[in-house]
Amino acid sequence: MVLLDYVPIFIMVSLAGIFGLVLSKASEIFGPKKPNPEKLSTYESGMQPIRTARERFSVKFYLVAMLFILFDVEIVFLYPWAAVVRELRLFGFIEMLIFVAVLLVGYVYILKKGALRWD
Amino acid sequence: MDFVDIIFVVFALIVVVSAFIVVFSRSIIRSAFSLLFTFFGVAGLYVLLNADFLAVTQVLIYVGGILILILFGVMLTTNVVSVEIKTGTLQTVPAAVIVAVLSGTIAGIFWFTEWHTAPAREGPTTKALGTLFMTDYLLPFEIASILLLVALIGAAMIARHERGTEGGR
Q1: With a threshold of 0.80, does the pTM exceed it?
Q2: What are the residue ranges spanned by the domains of chain A?
Q3: What is the DSSP-derived secondary structure letter of residue B50?
Q4: Which of B130, B138, B139, B146 is the most buried (most CB within 10 A)?
Q5: Minimal-distance CA residue of chain A relative to B158
Q6: Is the CATH number of domain B1-81 1.20.120.1200?
Q7: How many residue pairs from chains A and B have C-beta atoms closer than 8 A?
């Protein structure tokens, strides 16, 4: 049965979920709670918050996310190639080299355009 | 009902319930996070259909990429937390007619089409896909890289545009 192959993934996902849930709930139930105004401030013994954090995000984050998806798609193409690269030997390697080289042109382009510069 | 059916129902429930939350939740941030479970449930359904590569792609692209894009899109809206989504009922009669026709069409297609199901194939698909990509479908594969290049350049263009208008923010 093929589905048995996914049992490790299932166990890992469940463990991760249980771990997060148990830890957060345990600290909520067992942790001592003696709040005072200083403790309840956003950064205890840190910076004073200047203004509310719930404001509009900069558009730059959106651009980073877009670039991230593009390289994410590249990874998706790399994945089936990586599964068979040993059988294809040099031929498959050169094919992927062309694929990556084309994307490298785009990477150099956005680098030169300053799309990755933050300010 | 055997074991696979039970798993299917579990994943289908995850997808449908979280999709309902996406649609009906009042806060957009809750909708966006609920979309995470929809995407994961769909990935589970792909696994059940023996489409393991599609499931990986679903997790990698949709859960890892598109969802982040949507979350950033949500955070770009002013006043993330207190945005109230209101829906009103307008144009009841035309809407009802269109919905009736549309659902009738879909139901008709569902009932009267002879569904040809491919014989189930077991086992991982990634290696077969990789071989096909590198041999029979090499040209589409390389063209995909050019498509990505075009998208990269488009993103860079948008960035330069934003830099001009947005200033130092």
Answers
A1: no
A2: 3-113
A3: T
A4: B130
A5: A63
A6: yes
A7: 150
